[in-house]
TrEMBL record:
Keywords: Cell membrane, Membrane, Transferase, Transmembrane, Transmembrane helix. This is DUF2029 domain-containing protein. Pfam families: GT87 (PF09594). Its main location: membrane. GO terms for molecular function: hexosyltransferase activity. It comes from Streptomyces marincola.
Length: 504
């Protein structure tokens, strides 16, 4: 069915100087044939193909390790920046020996001190399916490398799902999906671990929420939480925004769907194999300060053990979430869901005791939805690429015999680069919330195109003296394109209160 109030797609090359300049490398700004319709150059097709191409480049970047670097040398996988957990855990967690995750313990000589697999249940299932698809026996002389290839193929599908979902969440901004498809950090970190599974499910949940299907969105969010812990954080922004808009039924459907889906996946493992199931949670709690975090800088600079880091990190997350709640309830206009989602997940990462290189994958789609401006996105990505190179050079120095690589001081600067890059993007998004006229997504007259039942809703509760929804101005000044003033077309549709009829 056609959209009740159709309007032309927003083309970044017409609004974003960086996008316009970059488009010259591929023939100039997007033309009239690249529309949302079913043509061969429809954005979703183009972006899906670009995502596959960028992912393939990332696989090629890991080529130096595929031959021997993962196993025959202590440092080659670091000096070539091609490290991946996947082939190591194929052997180290018993998949090569047919060990069933959670139900059977890992042989002591393989486990590095862990008795069971230290991943959530849905990720464990993903790993097991890849192991079943990996050929065994004399016909496969390099099973660990083959296991990596099988996982890479499955993770590529996840990357395409992510890019397509971001393309479809904001109906009139499909080309923002290019930010995801062309992200340098996506190519570099996609096959380090299995994070893309949770990210794909999270993006699918956001797509369903944007289509006013909160129950299905909640189910997908629960499945994402069964693959990685961070997606459950998104229920916080949904709760706060539903509070401000008075859409409690939508929140309850989403929360109920999330809890039900999580239980449906976890109970079949929790009940018969409680100790194996709990390993992920005990490992996360007992894990010491690790690479990439601000806590590691403090520990290295002070030579302190930081035994209470779990308490410190939890306190910072609670305080940060309280501040985000106040911001959401007191902002001039209700913030968009993607803005609060990025802030909450970024807060969790910035305060965590480990900030692994692949954690950037959690933020890439949220950044594309929250702040679709190429300049800010590339500044942030630059810090992440710098850290990606820095951590491997630091590990090369730690594991090599000739002390070649990055010293601790240089590695600390690399940590600062990606921490400050993430903090910079948070600051820009907070500014957009406080000054909604500078929000790129709202410059075409939209409210929250990814907000589902929240899109166009009036305020029911705020911390402001006058709880009203400010009218959309007749024009916005786009400060990212040399001060050009953009006309504001007709605003998008507004759903009636609790319009979730498609769920019943």
């Amino acid at each position: 069915m056609a959209h009740p109030n159709p309007r032309a797609d927003v083309r970044p090359t017409e609004q974003d100087d960086v996008a316009a300049a970059g488009s010259e490398l591929i023939g100039g700004p997007v033309g009239r044939r690249a529309g949302r319709g079913g043509g061969r150059w429809a954005p979703v097709r183009v972006i899906a193909l670009i995502a596959i191409g960028v992912f393939a480049l990332g696989m090629a970047q890991k080529a130096p390790c595929y031959g021997s670097g993962w196993f025959e040398s202590a440092t080659d996988q670091y000096t070539h920046a091609c490290y991946s957990d996947i082939p190591h855990l194929y052997q180290g967690r018993g998949f090569a020996d047919g060990v069933t995750p959670y139900f059977e313990s890992i042989p002591a000589e393989l486990s590095s001190g862990l008795q069971y697999l230290e991943y959530p249940v849905l990720t464990g299932l993903f790993m097991q399916v890849a192991a079943w698809l990996t050929p065994e026996g004399t016909s496969n002389p390099h099973p660990a490398q083959t296991y990596w290839l099988v996982n890479a193929a499955l993770l590529m599908l996840c990357a395409v799902v992510i890019a397509v979902c971001v393309t479809r969440i904001h109906r009139h901004r499909p080309w923002d999906g290019l930010l995801v498809a062309m992200a340098p950090a996506l190519a570099l970190t996609a096959t380090i671990n299995w994070d893309l599974l949770a990210v794909a499910l999270t993006c699918a949940a956001l797509l369903m929420w944007s289509r006013s299907r909160p129950l299905l969105g909640g189910v997908l969010l629960g499945l994402a939480t069964a693959a990685k812990l961070y997606p459950i954080l998104l229920l916080g922004p949904i709760f706060v925004l539903c509070w401000r808009a008075g859409r409690w039924r939508a929140f309850l459907l989403a929360a109920g769907g999330a809890v039900g889906a999580w239980l449906a996946v976890n109970l079949p493992v929790l009940i018969p194999a409680r100790e194996g199931w709990a390993t992920f949670y005990t490992f996360s709690e007992e894990r010491p300060v690790d690479f990439g975090s601000v806590w590691l800088i403090i520990q290295q600079r002070t030579n302190a053990e930081l035994d209470g880091v779990n308490i410190y990190a939890t306190a910072l997350v609670v305080l940060g979430c309280a501040a985000i709640t106040v911001l959401a309830l007191s902002a001039p206009r209700r913030p968009r869901l993607a803005q609060l989602a990025f802030l909450v997940v970024a807060l969790f990462i910035l305060t965590n005791k480990v900030y692994s290189p692949q954690y950037v994958l959690w933020l890439i789609p949220l950044a594309a939805l929250a702040r679709p401006r190429w300049r800010d996105f590339l500044i942030w990505q630059g810090g992440e690429v710098l850290y990606f190179l820095g951590v491997w050079m630091y590990l090369a120095r730690l594991n090599g015999e000739n002390q070649q690589g990055l010293a601790a001081g240089g590695y600390q600067l690399a940590i600062c680069a990606h921490l400050l890059g993430t903090a910079y993007l948070c600051a820009v998004i907070v500014r957009d919330i406080l000054r909604p006229e500078r929000d790129p997504v709202r410059q075409d007259g939209s409210d929250d195109p990814g907000g589902g039942v929240l899109d166009g809703a009036k305020d029911a509760f705020t911390l402001r003296s006058a709880p009203t929804q400010p009218p959309v101005p007749t024009a916005f000044v786009d400060w990212g394109v040399s001060g050009r003033t953009l006309p504001t077309p007709t605003t998008g549709r507004s759903l009636p209160p609790d319009d979730v009829s498609r769920e019943t």
